Amino acid sequence: MPPTLRPGAGGSERDVGAESAGVRTLRPRDMDLGAITNHSTLHAKPDGLVLQYGTAGFRTNAEHLDHIMYRMGLLAVLRSKQTKATIGVMVTASHNPEEDNGVKLVDPLGEMLAPSWEEHATHLANAEEQDLQRVLVDISEIEAVDLQQDAFVVIGRDTRPSGEKLSQSVIDGVTVLGGQFHDYGLLTTPQLHYMVYCRNTSGRYGEATIEGYYQKLSKAFVELTKQASCSGYEYRSLKVDCANGIGAMKLKEMQHYVSQGLSVQLFNDGTKGKLNHLCGADFVKSHQKPPEGMEMKPNERCCSFDGDADRIVYYYWDAYGQFHLIDGDKIAALISSFLKDVLLEIGENLNIGVVQTAYANGSSTRYLEEVMKVPVYCTKTGVKHLHHKAQEFDIGVYFEANGHGTALFSKAVEVKIKQLAKELGDNKGKAAKMLENIIDLFNQAAGDAISDMLIIEAILGLKGLTVQQWDALYMDLPNRQLKVKVADRRVISTTDAERQVVTPPGLQKVISDLVKKYKFSRAFVRPSGTEDVVRVYAEADSQENADSLAHEVSLAVFQLAGGIGERPTPSF
Ligand SMILES: CC(=O)N[C@H]1[C@@H](OP(=O)(O)O)O[C@H](CO)[C@@H](O)[C@@H]1O
Ligand SMILES: [Mg+2]
């Protein structure tokens, strides 16, 4: 029996004298199902549209997302009630084209939504109008949500034109379920994660305002640059491609806080170009070439953010006109080697782990394991998997090859380093203070282009490393990524952190045989969680061989996994 209606929408009206939370948590006055349905008709779901909460939430053309936003507002309230904490909702489609948009929920400690709730999100998003009430009731029951509990939701959005209206639909969903909210408006994705983390740790992590974010990061950064031995102009200037996105606005706001230690020159700042079009971290990484709209001189250190500023990659032209990409793998190598050195200096033996995905370049894994002697772990694609694994170490460094990552420090480590910074003198004390600032500079809620950029700049300055020296840590194996269109990408299932195909039968054997034809080679395929494609990755001893292996694997996918449209042709 569905609960009866109560008049009026939203608010935080209490059901006085209700039974204690537990067995059946739903009571007539807890959810105004009538109002939920009425408002839902204003955010009607297009008939037959099925979307899935993927690697990074829902993402598609912005025109198909209004109902999703409303429903994610509803879900955020339930999650907030259940966790008794502030929940975040970020409206963004990251590196996707400007016409797209998307949404993801942020859990209490600034991390990605728990997997069981991703399933609820998918059910709720795909419920037909007449089933919406039932699905909401089901979720509340399964998760034993105490509907008496207050709910608080914070919302942020990137610069997409559709963002404002879609945020409004989220707010509609939040208020109709009686939730309170704060709309931060324009934010980078990691800034929203930061806000959620701050709010749920009573300000211990930082102040939950944009000013608080700038203050925390810039204070740590400026302290670090004071300790740097190299502070010449070339160490302080950096060119940044902002993908015509939110990163430009936020970096402009932040510029004067860090100007003492860093001078940034912004390109693709959104004044002319289109979001992510021929620029941004994803473009640079996948095309392995510089973005348009950036003036680069040989040996100048440059970097690119993606559309919502949670990824960063570095690069430069050498004196011979060759382009060098420094991706997430090399960022992880720089950071973990720096952390190892600092710990050695302090005399602390902590366990550091580096977490990667199958897309990590084979050379990076070899370098980390064999030269740096740090343990490396491989997880499935998607930051939530890496983040989760990284939490197992005293210090967990995680990066996707595309430049999304950060480092996590256990509470015990943070406390210990703070204490050592106070107690120790001389070089040990200096190193402990350095590490204390580095910890503050990392966004431990999520990978963050601004925070990562400041960390990299600080480390290069402290170590006196040029971009070429950093690049020379190891040589990437030539690699290629391709996409194959198939009728239903779910026919491909994988195991071993996505490095082996399970279905369709026979495909793995073909891939393994192809890989054997080349030297230093590796290849794998997996269905994308953000696009309707199957991704193919290959690496080998030469670019020609990597291209050729990737192409052959694409053909195998096309043939064995129901390819549609044109057969893949060699495109390099
Ligand atoms: C190969 C690749 O770069 N995949 C990206 C991409 O996921 P796919 O599931 O591959 O579409 O978008 C994710 C979200 O931004 C990111 O976490 C991931 O690394
Ligand atoms: Mg992004």
From TrEMBL:
Residues 501-554 form the Alpha-D-phosphohexomutase C-terminal domain. Residues 81-129, 149-198 form the Alpha-D-phosphohexomutase alpha/beta/alpha domain. Pathway: Nucleotide-sugar biosynthesis; UDP-N-acetyl-alpha-D-glucosamine biosynthesis; N-acetyl-alpha-D-glucosamine 1-phosphate from alpha-D-glucosamine 6-phosphate (route I): step 2/2. Its cofactor is Mg(2+). The keyword Phosphoprotein applies. The active site is at 94 (phosphoserine intermediate). Residues 208-313, 327-463 form the Phosphoacetylglucosamine mutase AMG1 domain. GO terms for molecular function: magnesium ion binding; phosphoacetylglucosamine mutase activity. Mg(2+) binds at residues 94, 306, 308, 310. Binds 1 Mg(2+) ion per subunit. It catalyses: N-acetyl-alpha-D-glucosamine 1-phosphate = N-acetyl-D-glucosamine 6-phosphate. InterPro entries: A-D-PHexomutase_a/b/a-I (IPR005844), A-D-PHexomutase_a/b/a-I/II/III (IPR016055), A-D-PHexomutase_C (IPR005843), A-D-PHexomutase_C_sf (IPR036900), A-D-PHexomutase_CS (IPR016066), AMG1_II (IPR049023), AMG1_III (IPR049022), PAGM (IPR016657). Residues 1-22 are annotated as: Disordered. GO terms for biological process: carbohydrate metabolic process; hemopoiesis; UDP-N-acetylglucosamine biosynthetic process. Substrate binds at residues 400-402, 526-530, 535. Coiled coil: none annotated. Keywords: Acetylation, Carbohydrate metabolism, Isomerase, Magnesium, Metal-binding, Phosphoprotein. Its EC number is 5.4.2.3. Catalyzes the conversion of GlcNAc-6-P into GlcNAc-1-P during the synthesis of uridine diphosphate/UDP-GlcNAc, a sugar nucleotide critical to multiple glycosylation pathways including protein N- and O-glycosylation. Belongs to the phosphohexose mutase family. This is Phosphoacetylglucosamine mutase. It comes from Fukomys damarensis.
